[in-house]
Amino acid sequence: MKLILVLTVTIKLAIVSATDTEWWKTALIYQIYPRSFKDSDGDGIGDLTGIKEKLPYLKSTGVDGIWLSPIYLSPMRDFGYDITDYKQIAPEYGTMKDFQELLKEARKLGLRVILDFVPNHTSNESDWFIRSARREPGYEDFYVWADGIVDPERPGEVLPPSNWVSHFRRSMWEYHPGRGQYYLHQFAIGQPDLNYRSQRVQAEMKEVLRFWLDLGVSGFRVDAINKLYEVDPNDYGGVYPDEPLSGISDTDPDDYEYYDHIFTQDLAETYEVVFDWREVLDEYTETHGEYKIMMTEAYTNLFNTILYYGNENRDGAIPFNFIFLEEINKNSTARDIKTTIDKWMTYMPHGRVANWVNGNHDQSRLASRQGPERVDAMNMLALMLPGVALTYQGEEIGMTDGHVSWEDTKDPQACNTDDPINYWKKSRDPSRTPYHWDSSVFAGFTCGVEPWLPVADNYKELNLQVQLRSRRSHYNFYKDVVAVRKTAASKYGDLGILAYTEDILVVTRLLPNARGIVGVINLSNKPQLVDLSSVTLLPKYLKVVASGVNCTQTKGFILLKDYIIVSNNCALLLQTISRCC
Ligand code: NOJ
Ligand code: MG
């Protein structure tokens, strides 16, 4: 009896001590846009088996986890962000068995799988929506329904409940003849917003989280979180109040930017829901032996963003750092970049985990946004700053935006412009073109029919295979920096940022013994001499551990800290060494 007790206690202790509660704090998370990553069955659309085939590549790159953009059953009006059933896999991406095999393979390789959780809206083809439109008991208030306003000019006709305009243009309200009411959609007409004032919706969405957690996923990226609530008409005399104009003159009244969205985003209620989800995830930490990560997507101001972290009473999520993505551009100086990094580190609540986002499927690719010459610099920064690093597929090889003609355009945000000339200003297709694996037809993305979006023109010169073979490439540099990311200095070293000049940015991560790493970036088009003797803690000798495509030094070179020549647009990663040779 005694022995059994001792054994149970020991086993329990073993389980507890095996729980990995730290992995996420320094994780490198690689975003996969499944439709465009790798097609295994030749239908021109990427799929789960394609992703599984490429897991060894991601492992060898040094990635810790993959975040998959939505893989669920969907009519694909917004390419998976319009979900018919949260618990089924889209047939074009595979089956539940394929997903489980992907998970198994990932686990074998030590890679974690993170899913996209899309709580704000479903597809209008979802069973919930169909039932709600029919006013089936229990489902009546699953969505945001409202009566129209009687049109004073045309008696018998109704107008939308308010002037609210959707992200993808035109009214946020769509009339549903079956129900005789309008429903709200922050995005496409096919994406009705769920009603978070319904406790049943809240409960169902927690069940969705549990369903995937039970299967063994390591966490979620949460879509459009700040759109979860709109104001309650009961607080406004029973009506939905109109939103004021933003004052941005060069847009038209059908455009989202035309209005200031004070009633349809960032509502205080949102945060409590996130904290509740955090609790659901925390239920799994011990039983699954790992902390489950949650990252929230909200394009909003810094003040509203950092609230997602949580407070003294409740834990929250890692809010995506979009100032890193949005404020830094082609013309940013070293001082600008330092200011942006400092801003996040300053406003982030103490003890929370930072993160650095260089791109995603909604933004122009890093190499196009910032210029190909800044790819190494920005990748190195995201990878060497403290906290979580996020890489959107293709950034490790510096892929650029593809050209997608009006005829080939698929993104609803672009299609809704109805404008064959200016559609590209709204289009997210250019950053969603297929991944460039090699120089073969369709860049090795598919062996079958034409891909769902055209492959970018430059794939023959810019692809993974070419970069794997060349001595200096964005990929090889990226991989070298990722390897250094696994060291103690990169994980725990104190952060120092020095805007040496307008052109030179220096980032240090030093441990108490003054061991550590130094990133030196030259943003200019000419070589520069950098003297780091003012960084007193830094030892005299530094070894090159990663050298960007524009640098002259090779890996293994020893440099003196007071005499570092950095060629134009070069990003160098150096490690302290105690002795010269
Ligand atoms: C953000 C997603 O990243 C984007 O692709 C999508 O269109 C909207 N949310 C709506 O789900
Ligand atoms: Mg909403």
Defining traits:
Immunoglobulin-like; alpha/beta; Oligo-1,6-glucosidase, domain 2; binds magnesium ion; binds 1-deoxynojirimycin; 581 residues; globular
Task: Write up this protein.
There is one protein chain. The chain is an alpha/beta fold and 581 residues long. The chain has three domains: 28-118 and 321-469, TIM Barrel (Alpha-Beta Barrel), CATH 3.20.20; 120-195 and 231-266, Oligo-1,6-glucosidase, domain 2; 491-576, Sandwich (Immunoglobulin-like), CATH 2.60.40.1180. It has 17 helices and 23 strands. It has helices at 2-18, 48-53, 55-61, 96-109, 127-133, 199-215, 269-282, 285-288, 302-306, 322-327, 334-347, 366-369, 375-384, 412-415, 464-469, 474-485, 488-492; strands spanning 28-32, 65-68, 72-73, 85-89, 112-117, 145-146, 149-150, 158-159, 173-176, 181-184, 219-222, 293-296, 318-319, 355-357, 388-392, 494-499, 504-510, 516-522, 528-530, 541-547, 558-560, 564-566, 571-577. Strands 13-12-11-5-2-1-15-14 form an eight-stranded parallel sheet. It is globular, with a radius of gyration of 25 Å. It starts with a helix and ends with a strand. Mean pLDDT is 96; it is low at 1-16. Residues 78, 81, 118, 187, 223-224, 297, 361-362 line the site of 1-deoxynojirimycin.
